[in-house]
Amino acid sequence: MALPRVSVDDVRGALSSSLSKLGFEVYPLKIGWYNAVLSPPLHLSYPDDTLAAVVLSTPTMFEQAFLPFLENRGWKEVITDPIDQCVRHYVNYIVSECFPGVKVDVSYDYEMLPSRKPKFLAQTAAHVAGAVYYYQHADVPDQPWGNKKMFGVCIHPQLGGWFAIRALLVFVGTEVGSELQQTAPPDSVPRREDRIQLLENFNFRWRVGLTQCIMDWSYRDIIPVAQTYSQRQREYFSTSPGQRQYLLRDWGYLTRGEEEDKQESLHRK
C-alpha cells in the first residue's frame, strides 16, 4: 500500500507556521541535491526526488521554546542535553500533528550512526536547501593556510552565525518534481578577506577554562545581523555542558530532593 504523501506547500505552510512560533525555520529540499555534493558513502538512502526539510533554530527559540519547555517539565535531574530534548519534543510533536499517518524519518544534528559518523551532514543539508551558505576552505581563492585543517561554517543571511541547524525531516514515499526548484544560498560573505576572517575566527578563536570551552563568537557577527542571542542565552551556551544543570538550578528550572541537597553539601565541605 502506498504511503500517504505531502506537498511542498504543506512543508512551507503548516510545518513552517507551527515551528516558526517556537523560533524555528524550515527549508524544503530534495534528497538528490544533498547526495549530489557528497561521496557515495555519505549518501542518504532515498530516491533523489524524495522531499525533505532542514530545521534551523533562531535566537528566539531559547525564550519561545526552551525556557517554556523547562518550566513545563518540572525536572529534578538532567539525563541528556536539555536543548536536544527540547528540539526533539517540539519537532516530533509538530510533525505528528501536521502529518498524521505520514512516514517521516527525523534525524537530529547530535545523532550518530554505529560507525560514529553523524546521521546527516547538517551544514551541507542547510546549504543545498538554500537556507545558509556553507563557507569552506575551498571558498577562499589562494588560501593562506597550506595543508592546515580548516573547518567550515555556515552563515545565515539575516542572522549571521546566531542560529543552529537542528534536524532533517525526510518524507518517505513523497517524491516531488518541478514544483521544488533548487536555489543557491545567499552569499553573505563575498569578499575573500572577509571569508579568511570568518574561517580563522571560527577555527582559532577559542577560550578555555574550568567551566568554559567556547569560541569567542566573533565569527557570528561577520555580517550585520537582525537578531543575536539574549544575555541569558549567551550565559547558558558559555557554560560548559557539565555545568549547565547547576546554572538551570540557579535559574529555578531544576529542583532537587532533600537527599541530593545533603550529598552536595557534604561534597562541598
Task: Give a brief description.
GO terms for molecular function: cobalamin binding; cyanocobalamin reductase (cyanide-eliminating) (NADP+) activity; demethylase activity; FAD binding. The protein has 269 residues and is α+β, with helices and mostly antiparallel strands. The chain has helices at residues 8-20, 31-36, 61-73, 82-98, 122-128, 192-204, 231-238, 244-251, 258-268, and strands at residues 24-30, 50-57, 104-108, 133-135, 153-155, 164-175, 206-208, 213-215.
Question: Can you describe this structure?
Answer:
The structure is a single chain. It contains nine helices and eight strands. It is an alpha+beta fold. A hairpin with a 4-residue loop joins strand 7 and strand 8. Helix 1 packs across helix 4 and helix 3 packs across helix 4. The longest helix is centred in the middle third of the chain and has 17 residues. The C terminus is likely disordered.
What key attributes describe this structure?
4-stranded antiparallel β-sheet, alpha+beta, 269 residues, 8 strands, FAD, cobalamin binding, FAD binding, EC 2.5.1.151, cytoplasm
